[in-house]
Design a protein that fits this description.
Length: about 110
């Protein structure tokens, strides 16, 4: 098994578990063949990029979340759903946009505290 397949399998299983989804849910919700999903979950095969995008959309994540091992994502389980979503969005911004977002957050906090 290739490393790519193992990473995809690990991340797919992680997001399925995180979202309370089973292989049967993916079969029913996405119309994907049972044996195909099984090979993805056990790391035997990996889907094409278009299908990876479909899975990412299904879980509300980025395609890279399924094909790149991101230990920080897995370790952030103490965060709420919104906090995780904000964390992922923030990680993917460039430095200039992060600064703008931090300024905006500080401004909103000041307004909230008035």
């Amino acid at each position: 098994m290739s490393n790519e397949k193992l990473i995809f399998s690990k991340m797919l299983n992680y997001y399925m578990n995180k979202n309370g989804k089973t292989q049967v849910d993916l079969i029913n919700d996405l119309g994907i063949n049972k044996s195909t999903i099984s090979t993805w979950c056990n790391g035997t095969k990996m889907p094409r990029m278009g299908t990876i995008q479909t899975l990412a959309d299904y879980f509300g994540i980025m395609k890279s979340d399924l094909i790149e091992e991101k230990p920080a994502t897995i370790e952030d389980d103490g965060l709420s759903g919104q906090e995780k979503q904000l964390s992922e969005l923030f990680k993917n911004l460039n430095e200039d946009n992060r600064d703008i977002l931090l300024d905006l957050a500080a401004s909103l906090k000041r307004k909230q505290n008035q």
